Amino acid sequence: MDGNLQNDIEKIVEADRAHVWHHLTQHKPLETGEPRIIVEGRGMRVWDQHGKEHLDAVSGGVWTVNVGYGRERIANAVRDQLIKLNYFAGSAGSVPGAQFSEKLISKMPGMSRVYYTNSGSEANEKAFKMVRQIAHKRYGGKKHKILYRDRDYHGSTIGAMSCGGQDERNAQYGPFAPGFVRVPHCLEYRAQWDLSGEEYGQRAADAIEEVILAEGPDTVGALCLEPVTAGGGVITPPEGYWPRVQEICRKYDILLHIDEVVCGVGRTGTHWFGYQHYGVEPDFVTMAKGVASGYAAIACCVTNERVFDMFKEDMTDPMDYFRDISTFGGCTAGPAAALENMAIIEEEGLLENTTVMGDYMLDQLHALKDKHKVIGDVRGKGLFLGAELVADRTSKEPVPEKHAQAVAADCMAQGVVIGVTNRSIPGFNNTLCYSPALIATRDDIDQIIAATDKALTKVFG
Ligand SMILES: Cc1ncc(COP(=O)(O)O)c(C=O)c1O
């Protein structure tokens, strides 16, 4: 921050209050209350305008800052690249763009092409457009429908919301684009079929096949899924789900689009991507948040060669290629930051740390569940975890969202930032969310768990 401004934080607060429209925020209370300004970050911690330290258990609020704050080597790499060349449209290549694509593809067997863009929503839109163009090129436009799942989220643009399974997020923003069709969610805790384990997973996948058959397989071009649903309640897939999903896609020649915007680049531990835990072979993989940990805006729509080949079949046809551009997909800061981000994860063994610390944190959340009957279910993978709060364990009635929010607010007052699902599923904004940076230590996790424990006692007794 500029020195003069730093001396006068009140002016910053006033400027913010007067002119900034915050994301996901009802501004009325800020007419009298003070907006929160995050001024500085280091490692797992951030400081606000009052100098108050917070342990960030949500990687920048929305599962993004995977390698933690204050990474000088990323800043230096971005600076060096910006001085050399900040930008040229993506119709040309760039040095970091080529280097990062090679590195990324080396982590994604079966995939081969990286289309650069600059947000998760936009990366998903690229995949949707590719699916639509394939439908026109191959099937006279008929095989154009895109299936999406109840509770999944794919972004904030009207196209991505048309593919959005979170009704509260979508309310008041319609009408949406045609050609997107919903399939049931796979959350076993809120079971839709009287089965369990692998049988449940296969049944939840069979529900997708039922939708395909009802719509007509010759009208369905793609299926878009989060590997582990994030904002819809941290939903890990049941056993048996993914193999059956893959089988169904192959059976009806439906392209499989995996949205790794949250899971991607280490968040789930051991593997670079969430889908790699389940042996899935996708046609599209989209990613954003953790790709450069928020040090620069970058997102990617990655495809396999089969998809790529469909866009260079007939050189004599002026309409044959992917006629799309993302202006800021040509910014070089993104891939320059992403290269360093990936190098840090490798050099510091953060995939392994995420697995070990994720297992530890899951155990600690289970211990909290034993202590607090308000926790109905604990789930997640790696450092991507959730605890669903219920008023009654038998009926599984969700706690009022105000109570879940009170838990997060109390943690914040204690100096620990946790998340809670919000404006997502009507009546089900009741899951506490945790996604600490992949550098988290046992001490950090103990502090997060202790704050949650205290907050649960305060709110629920
Ligand atoms: C699974 C998933 N996909 C896509 C998006 C959209 O990403 P962005 O906000 O960068 O457009 C999000 C954002 O939270 C997300 O969670």
UniProtKB/TrEMBL annotation:
Keywords carried by this UniProt record: Aminotransferase, Pyridoxal phosphate, Transferase
GO molecular function: pyridoxal phosphate binding; transaminase activity
Keyword Hydrolase: no
Cofactor: pyridoxal 5'-phosphate
Entry-linked InterPro entries: Aminotrans_3, Aminotrans_3_PPA_site, PyrdxlP-dep_Trfase, PyrdxlP-dep_Trfase_major, PyrdxlP-dep_Trfase_small
GO CC aspect terms: cytosol
Protein family according to the UniProt entry: Belongs to the class-III pyridoxal-phosphate-dependent aminotransferase family.
Name this polypeptide is given: Aminotransferase class III-fold pyridoxal phosphate-dependent enzyme
